[in-house]
Every structure is written in structure tokens, then in C-alpha cells.
């Protein structure tokens, strides 16, 4: 195993830093162009918003009904069970008779596919050009040595493009440095742009897990979602935090006095 190599100090100025700087600049430019090409957000129809919020209210009742008394729970349970079986809160009253939309003819689906294609192009072309540039000008360069030990399992990842089986795993090749930057520059972009995109994506993912995607092509119909929620509420078991509260208070006071 070759433990030590003498690396030219100029490598970090002519290879390492240029790769990092170019990738940061390209990432910032790509982010700005993507923002310019992004379509304007569309406001939801008020009927669709009312439909989603009513379903959210029903879900909240199903999860947090322990703060209600038995009478309040029964009243609300009866209301939600009966209302969810009707079309009162449907954005489209005739959805039960509506045929499933064809994704190929749905303008919303076509627009989503076009936006996805734009995003893929904006990601694929710049990274392909940068990788070709690194491979052409800096192929076979060993540009740095990591300041900490690494197991041999990382050798293929850190020394891509360098055919030296006895080289210490801590040495990093130029093309491997490109991949490290490709996977690890997001915090740098967030710091430079003061971007909270990652947080917004996380919140959107959580909301999509909690609520079904109503109206999406291929998704469940609203009437089926409402009916399923009605059945779930109908079989709920209620345990109120107010049940036996007097006995618990008396018992707590008795325990306090006896311990004193």
C-alpha cells in the first residue's frame, strides 16, 4: 500500500477550487433559471378548499376527540358520519357519476409532465457538461488527501478514474471530487441564497402523507375518501379525559394529605 504521495500544492488552485467554484456557480444559475421557468402558482377554487378543509376537520376529530365529553363526542360523531355520506362539501356535486379522467387528455397532467421535463433538462444538461469538462481536462488527477482515515470500501468511490490499486484510500481523484460536490453542495447553496426550499419540501411531504391527494389523476375519488372517513368515525371508541375526573382529584388530594 502506497501511504504517502507528494502532491503539488498548485493542484488545489488549478484543479480542486475550479471544480468547486464552477459547480457552485452553475448550481446558482440553474436555480435562478428554474425559478424563472416555474409556472405561477394557481389559487385553489374556494369549493375545493372547503372540501379539503372539511376532510381535515373530520380527520382532526378522529385523532383528537379525547378532549370532548361523551355528549359532545356523540353529537359531533353523528354530524360527521351523516355529512360525510352526502355531497354537501363536494367541490363537484356530480363526481360520483363522473368517469375517470384520461391523464393523456387532462391539461393539468400535461402541464405537470411538461414542468417535470423542464426540471429534468435543467438538471441533466449542466451536470453532463461539467462532468465531461472534468473528465477532459482533469482526468487521472489525484488532488487531495483526506485528513482522516477511511476504510477500503470507499476506494472505488473516492478514486474513480485513477487505476492505482495500491494507493491509500484517503487520496481523492478529480472526478470523485466532482461527485462529492454534486452530492454535498446543497448546504452551500442554502447558505448563499438564504433558501428554505428543503424545509418547504419537508412540510409538503408531511402534509401529503396526512391527507390524500384529492383530484389528482389516478388518485382516489372524493366520494370514496369521504365515505371511508365516515366509516372510520362511525366505529370510533371514545375515551374522554374528563371521565372519572372527580374521583381522580379526590384521590390525588387524599394522597397529598396522607403524605404530608
Automatic annotation (TrEMBL):
- Domain of life per record: Eukaryota
Name recorded for this polypeptide: ER membrane protein complex subunit 3
Q: What organism does the record attribute this protein to? A: [Candida] jaroonii
